[in-house]
């Protein structure tokens, strides 16, 4: 185990909208973060992210995947997350708290300028109200999200 992993985990400051789950209590390098946004267009949703840290952490960022299909400019339909500190801006001085705050911010302020889901980004840029409506449709279930993605690809 990377020595700073335990320190990072013990110093997490999770608000009431987040919690961590350790499927295997003996493996602190792999855990789940649950986020339930209480403001913004994703209010009322519940989103889980798997965190996987290798032995190279903190020299390499954690691998983070969203477990739900979500209509979001910065999260693709495979769950990959576009967050600069998980890629080119990662530095060993950053910690898990920085990643968690970044994820929480993506739900408050989706970023259309650096998208993984280009349709959602175009939608957000064109009309915040249409984007908000499409987010609500997608949160109603994955079949609704697939229909939304299909109609966007035809349109």
TrEMBL record:
<comment type="similarity">
    <text>Belongs to the ubiquitin-conjugating enzyme family.</text>
</comment>
<dbReference type="InterPro" id="IPR016135">
    <property type="entry name" value="UBQ-conjugating_enzyme/RWD"/>
</dbReference>
<dbReference type="Pfam" id="PF00179">
    <property type="entry name" value="UQ_con"/>
</dbReference>
<dbReference type="GO" id="GO:0005524">
    <property type="term" value="F:ATP binding"/>
</dbReference>
<keyword id="KW-0833">Ubl conjugation pathway</keyword>
<dbReference type="InterPro" id="IPR000608">
    <property type="entry name" value="UBC"/>
</dbReference>
<dbReference type="GO" id="GO:0061654">
    <property type="term" value="F:NEDD8 conjugating enzyme activity"/>
</dbReference>
<protein>
    <recommendedName>
        <fullName>NEDD8-conjugating enzyme UBC12</fullName>
        <ecNumber>2.3.2.34</ecNumber>
    </recommendedName>
</protein>
<feature type="domain" description="UBC core">
    <location>
        <begin position="1"/>
        <end position="144"/>
    </location>
</feature>
<keyword id="KW-0547">Nucleotide-binding</keyword>
<feature type="active site" description="Glycyl thioester intermediate">
    <location>
        <position position="82"/>
    </location>
</feature>
<keyword id="KW-0067">ATP-binding</keyword>
<dbReference type="InterPro" id="IPR023313">
    <property type="entry name" value="UBQ-conjugating_AS"/>
</dbReference>
<comment type="pathway">
    <text>Protein modification; protein neddylation.</text>
</comment>
<keyword id="KW-0808">Transferase</keyword>
């Amino acid at each position: 185990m990377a020595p700073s992993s335990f320190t990072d985990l013990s110093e997490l400051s999770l608000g009431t909208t987040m919690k961590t789950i350790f499927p295997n209590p003996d493996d602190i390098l792999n855990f789940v973060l649950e986020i339930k946004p209480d403001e913004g267009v994703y209010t009322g949703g519940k989103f889980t992210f798997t965190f996987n840290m290798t032995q190279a952490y903190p020299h390499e960022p954690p691998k983070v995947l969203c477990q739900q299909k979500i209509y979001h400019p910065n999260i693709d339909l495979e769950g990959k997350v576009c967050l600069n500190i998980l890629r080119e801006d990662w530095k060993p001085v950053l910690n898990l708290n920085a990643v968690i705050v970044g994820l929480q911010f993506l739900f408050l302020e989706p970023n259309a300028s650096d998208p993984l889901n280009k349709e959602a980004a175009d939608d957000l840029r064109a009309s915040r109200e249409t984007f908000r409506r499409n987010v609500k449709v997608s949160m109603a279930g994955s079949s609704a999200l697939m229909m939304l993605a299909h109609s966007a690809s035809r349109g």
